[in-house]
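Quick note —
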Amino acid sequence: MKLISVVSPCYNEEGNVEQLYLRTRETLARFPQYRYEHIFIDNASTDRTVEILRRLAAMDKSVKVIVNARNFGHLRSPQHALMCAEGDAVAVLLSDLQDPPELIGEMIEEWERGTPIVAGIKNSSDENGTMFGIRTLYYRTVAMLTNIHVLEHFHGFGVYDRKVIDIIRTRFPDPYPYFRGIIAEIGLPHKSVYYNQKRRERGITKNNFYTLYDIAMLGITNLSKVPLRLVTFTGFLFALLSALVGLGYLIAKLVFWNNFSIGIAPVVVGLFFFGSVQMVALGVIGEYVGSIHTMVQNRPLVIEKERINFDDSEEKPKE
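Predicted structure written out below.
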């Protein structure tokens, strides 16, 4: 009998994990021809999340729990759980319940028709309209910077065939993975399943400005070298512009020797302007250097503190 794995990362989601478990179980009950496991990976929650997960795991052996030693972030922790999933199909479902667990049923049906990647795409959202617009602008900017087809408003929610998970496991050993970029890079056939993302009903979002900026820059540096080329072109452009302005001033001074005064204002404005351009250029280069630094360190995705309901015989991926 084939196995369906559902992976749910969580951090301080005491108000959601039980509802997530119940709704997911009800959805998968429509597929009695499959076994299923629901893997929760907890990022060292400080509320009652782990306590609730222990109780659920004690009642239902299909619930498997990994508790991390500390909070390893919103990218590394889900990837580790994904590598622990043994299913013939693996679903990624976040714990905030903004993505409907019931949609996994439709995704499994599409997977049964032979689609290796079934991606949940938000075509509308109950979140702030400005934020949704900014996300749309970001995805379209990334699409312009790369020749890889990037799924718009896709953040990982979906069902993936075993061969997709095996490709990620063996060919993408990234210590700081950008999952949606990896899916775009793999490029296997996909099917989009559209939905409206609900507003979070319980708990608060764990994404702040820095995490959103981190994900955004990671997406760009993972998928495109165009920003580096733009820095080079900008350098050439402003060098040429500076030479022309300097030549113009020299000619003006030679023609109007006694009446022409440069003044200090253009010099100060020019210094600030070119200083800003250099800072932006260094920042862009720094993002790429930071990515290289992360890869060279090759640190583990997470360090586990505890496992519940995993068999000892189950292979444990590299931490």
